[in-house]
Amino acid sequence: MKPVNQKAWLLVAPVLALVAFSAVIPLMTVVNYSVQDTFGANQFFWAGTVWYEQVLASERFWNALGRNLIFSFIILLIEIPLGVFIALNMPKKGPGVAACLVLMALPLLIPWNVVGTIWQVFGRVDIGLLGSSLALAGVDYNYVQDPVDAWVTLIVMDVWHWTSLVALLAYAGLVSIPDAFYQAARIDGASGWAVFRFVQAPKMARVLTIAVLLRFMDSFMIYTEPFVVTGGGPGNSTTFLSIDLVQMAVGQFDLGPAAAMSIVYFLIILLFSWIFYAVMTRHDDDGAKGG
Question: DSSP character for 3?
């Protein structure tokens, strides 16, 4: 058996050490704040798990968490099928490929705060193209005052911004399928649905797993866009955990509860991401055992 050369780890070790160093120090700082209390003058006192108990017993926390879960669920429900549909209809050969790839990548190049500003102006009923057009059409739309309109605006904005990522990942999976699979399907007289189910979908499974994980984590941690567009309103209807956390830490300067909430927030993201990954890759492990 040929020995495995592990010298490549020496090339990435400095980067891994730098990333670990830059990540561990802020994390330990937050952990330190989450178990201590302060009365000013940089004097800290041991508080134990008081802040964690306060956060977990807070209705405010659970309401914000519920909004996050609902938002992420809606985003995945729309963007994954839509991205796959777009990828299936993109050209696989010819001059149109480059044009489609560039057009699909354009929304991903726009910074998050700029996306929020664009949609904030776009949805205004006085000067925004969307808001004023809906007003002229007789549609009662105002994302500043109506919670439903605010949610619809944020969802449409996120779909516009991030469906391209799903489409590009799905497209990468599609173009990697050898032509021999399609030729065999044509010989067998397979329908379009059969080709998608038995040829295209299995080949896209891994990239779609990555797409689901990326979109879940990003949508669950969303902050800049809703903060710019709605500021968490109207009322608290779009106050997600990220916005609530910043309000607690910066607005109220409750560093202990904010640190505890950020740790709980991090653990929830880690837990859900692991669950998503474990569930979506189980069929790969079962297939490998069966083979």
Answer: P
With contact defined as beta carbons under 8 Å apart, do 150 and 238 qualify? yes
Q: How far apart are CA 206 and CA 284, in angstroms?
A: 9
For the beta carbon of residue 112, count every other beta carbon within 10 angstroms: 15
Question: pLDDT tens digits, the chain, 291 residues: what are they?
Answer: 567 777 777 888 888 888 878 878 888 888 888 888 876 667 778 888 899 999 999 999 999 999 999 999 999 999 999 999 999 999 888 888 888 888 888 999 998 889 999 999 999 988 889 899 998 999 999 999 999 999 999 999 999 999 999 999 999 889 888 888 888 888 888 888 888 888 888 888 888 888 988 899 899 999 999 999 998 989 889 999 999 999 888 888 888 899 999 999 999 988 988 887 787 777 555 554 544
Per-residue buried b or exposed e for 15-46, using 16+ beta carbons within 10 Å of the residue's own CB: eeeeeeeeeeeeeeebeebbbbbeeeeeeeee
Query: Amino acid letter at 5?
Result: N
DSSP state at residue 139: -
What are the structure tokens assigned to 228, written together?
Answer: 């710019």
Cβ contact 184:272 at 8 Å: no
Arch. (CATH architecture) of 45-176+203-280: Orthogonal Bundle (1.10)
Q: Report in angstroms the alpha-carbon separations of 131 from 18, 110, 113, 118.
A: 47, 22, 20, 12
User: How far, in Å, CA of 8 to CA of 135, rounded?
Assistant: 61
pTM: 0.85
On whether the CB atoms of residues 238 and 120 are closer than 8 A, the answer is no
Task: Please name which of 32, 56, 52, 54 lies closest in space to residue 44, comparing C-alpha atoms.
Answer: 32
User: Which residues are CB-neighbours of 140 under 8 A, at least 6 positions away?
Assistant: 146
